[in-house]
Design goal:
Number of helices: 17
CATH architecture of the largest domain: 3-Layer(aba) Sandwich
CATH topology of the largest domain: Rossmann fold
Bound molecules: uridine-5'-diphosphate
Radius of gyration: 22 Å
Number of domains: 2
Largest sheet: 7 strands, mixed
Helix content: 40-55%
Structural class: alpha/beta
């Protein structure tokens, strides 16, 4: 077990100007100069629990590049942990979303042993981190896996911010138990960040609370404009569609402007030939996590979406060994495969389960980009969601999105305008009706997609995020 340093590249945010316009650019650049002066001599240290897979890693990667490009000394460390620790923190994650393990008949109470596992791993990481933190540095700890580090970092003289990307609005005993587990570690943090106000528990001091919704980078490998030909070539190479037109080149552009090529194929569960390039294509891209309800998407699609017309469903996630802090992936994928096997043959033939290779993170991002670019519509039928970057990514690509009205998804989609919200994430009929409405009406789908892109441009790009970070820094009492 060891702390990992994630290498960061430096990016120049002025490349955002053609998208955000000169005025927004001027404001963010002016703020960047100010913030780098304020932070001079201090390091901005981010700590989370995985370098790849999931929204936090996705966002840190490009955002810290811009922060470094603005002249701030910024670093990213990923904690180490043993399997017992990650099983425990996954349980904590689920409970903060109000869910217990499916086979658990207890309310999820934590034992002394659980506390000891959490403390031991935390202490080992803290010991390594202490050598990298100087008094006055700002340490941003992400999510429950790293919450235990807060007292240690305060002790090291750092200004400590805890940023929570998860949670649910619904109060429950399970949620309270989970909050009671992490709360003692967080008593003295200097600030809290949540993605939306309703996700913060009542005991968080509002004077120390900042609401910062996540954002995407239009220039990342995942969000760069990709031509239809390239998207099709990549999906054909990966094995997801067949008969793509064009020259078959799977070359894509990376976040730094260099070129890469998709070489690997995806692991696919499917029966019969892959659909052609003109088939209507609904996609959900998610980690294999019960809260993303891949199985629910599959069952609703199979049972309720008109099979006579050429409509296909792709459920795509990372290969299950690919996300270090998510030990349930294999189990959830297996459950999905078993449920898929139970479907009638015709339904199975129009639904594929896809595991995207994670060996090369840019290759993975290019395949996700190709899926989102090629999709007729994008689905995010989460049962709970902190924010839901997959929604933002699809909206940016001007795709119509059908998503559950949970967590931060509600802040992204204006129902009927920039996508369709499904009020009850457990209601398959409501969900299927929304999907069918988009599949059946190309003009409506186009209109939703167009205003979705507009909404992301206005609210969910990096300049807004960086300005909020500047606001945070300005509000912190910096020591020394
Ligand atoms: N993602 C990915 N490859 C995959 C599956 C997911 O890159 O095989 C990305 C997805 O594009 C998004 C992030 O992982 O950027 C998931 O973030 P989100 O906020 O939607 O959910 P989280 O996983 O953080 O709960």
């Amino acid at each position: 077990m060891a702390l990992i340093t994630v290498p960061l590249q430096s990016a120049d945010m002025s490349r955002l100007e053609p998208i955000i316009g000169a005025e927004r650019m001027r404001v963010v650049q002016k703020t960047a100069v100010k913030i780098s002066k304020t932070l001079s001599g201090r390091s901005l240290i981010n700590v989370n629990s995985t370098a790849k897979g999931g929204g936090v890693a996705e966002m840190l990667y490009w955002m810290l590049g811009y922060v470094r490009g603005a002249g701030v000394d910024v670093n990213w460390y990923v904690i180490g942990g043993n399997p017992e620790f990650f099983v425990l923190t996954k349980r904590l994650h689920n409970m903060l979303h109000g869910k217990s393990a499916p086979d658990s008949d207890s309310g999820g109470e934590f034992t002394d042993h659980d506390s000891a596992v959490y403390r031991d791993v935390t202490q080992q990481n803290a010991a390594e981190l202490r050598a990298l933190v100087s008094p006055g540095d700002i340490v941003i700890l992400h999510d429950p896996q790293t919450a235990g580090l807060a007292p240690e970092m305060k002790d090291a003289g750092a200004v400590v911010v805890w940023r929570c990307h998860v949670g649910t609005e619904q109060e429950s005993e399970i949620r309270t138990t989970a909050w009671d587990f992490v709360r003692p570690y967080l008593e003295n943090v200097d600030a809290f960040i949540f993605s939306r106000k309703e996700l913060a528990p009542g005991w968080v001091d509002v004077k120390r609370l900042l609401i910062v919704p996540p954002s995407i980078d239009p220039f990342s490998t995942k969000n760069r404009a990709m031509s239809d030909e390239t998207a099709q070539a990549i999906l054909e190479h990966a094995g997801i569609i067949q008969g793509a037109a064009g020259n078959g080149l799977t070359e894509f552009t990376l976040g730094d402007g260099s070129s890469g090529r998709v070489n690997r194929m995806a692991d696919i569960v499917r029966t019969g030939p892959a659909p052609g390039p003109d088939a209507r294509f609904a996609v959900q891209v998610s980690r294999w996590d019960r809260l993303k309800d891949m199985q629910g998407v599959m069952e609703a699609f199979a049972n309720l979406i008109d099979g006579e017309r050429d409509s296909h469903l792709v459920l795509a996630g990372p290969v299950v060994t690919g996300v270090a802090d998510d030990p349930e992936g294999g189990e959830v994928l297996t459950e999905c495969i078993e449920a898929w096997r139970e479907l009638p043959h015709f339904e199975r033939s129009r639904i594929q389960l896809v595991c995207i290779p994670m060996t090369d993170i840019d290759e993975n991002a290019a395949i996700v980009n190709a899926l989102q670019t090629h999709a007729t519509l994008v689905i995010q039928k989460s049962l709970e969601e902190g924010f839901g970057l997959t929604v933002t990514e699809a909206m940016w690509k001007a795709k119509p999105v059908v998503a559950s009205a949970v967590g931060g998804i509600q802040d992204q989609i204006v129902h009927g305008e920039s996508g369709l919200l499904v009020r009850d994430p457990y209601d398959h009929h409501e969900f299927a009706a929304a999907v069918q409405a988009v599949l059946d009406d190309g003009k409506f789908a186009e209109k939703l997609g167009k205003s979705a892109r507009q909404r992301v441009t206005e609210r969910f790009l990096g300049d807004r995020h960086l300005l909020q970070y500047a606001e945070l820094v300005a509000g912190l009492e910096l020591i020394g």
